[in-house]
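Re-running the complex after MR caught last week's input typo. The corrected sequence lines follow. Everything else is unchanged.
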Amino acid sequence: AQSVTQLGSHVSVSEGALVLLRCNYSSSVPPYLFWYVQYPNQGLQLLLKYTSAATLVKGINGFEAEFKKSETSFHLTKPSAHMSDAAEYFCALLPPNFGNEKLTFGTGTRLTIIP
Amino acid sequence: EAGVTQFPSHSVIEKGQTVTLRCDPISGHDNLYWYRRVMGKEIKFLLHFVKESKQDESGMPNNRFLAERTGGTYSTLKVQPAELEDSGVYFCASSRPPGLLDETQYFGPGTRLLVL
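Corrected-run output:
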């Protein structure tokens, strides 16, 4: 069975500092991986996704993530945090085979930006 | 292109009552999914429709939950009778048909259900 672990349910960074949100996965086959973001009072929005092409994936709002098979990780980073990045971030896994299309989510990381 | 919409945005009901949640997927998306997030926990899969057929309902908690997708367009999720532990945020998502090389599931804003 697959699983996703997000280390740190709450992360605080200063405005302008590096954002690093951790995601590790467990899967019997290399999965597709996603980062979603939920801003206050809104739904889930796709930030970026890895689908077995380039291991470094760039997303919206300056975020990027790198798929590292050896470390089973897909950490999300942004060089310089902005106040508008305050939100909850979810890492999710999808098996790369049709017929099993349920996303498995981590527990989420709430990001706070300190002015 | 309009996104996934869900109605209502919030619902507060008493234990034992019935609630029906509605999801309208993105036009042309054959796949429709329901997920739920109970407070403080991870978002969990409930079920998956392909058009009007249930492809996978392995995540449905019990028989108090009934999902339908008549005509393969919008879907409803009915909880009857509601229990306290059913409180949470119910998300709907949709995705394009297989073979169109887009695995992304697009989510709606969710329905926040509170059972008192």
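None of the earlier attempt is carried over here. Chain B has a mean pLDDT of 92. Chain B has no helices and eleven strands.
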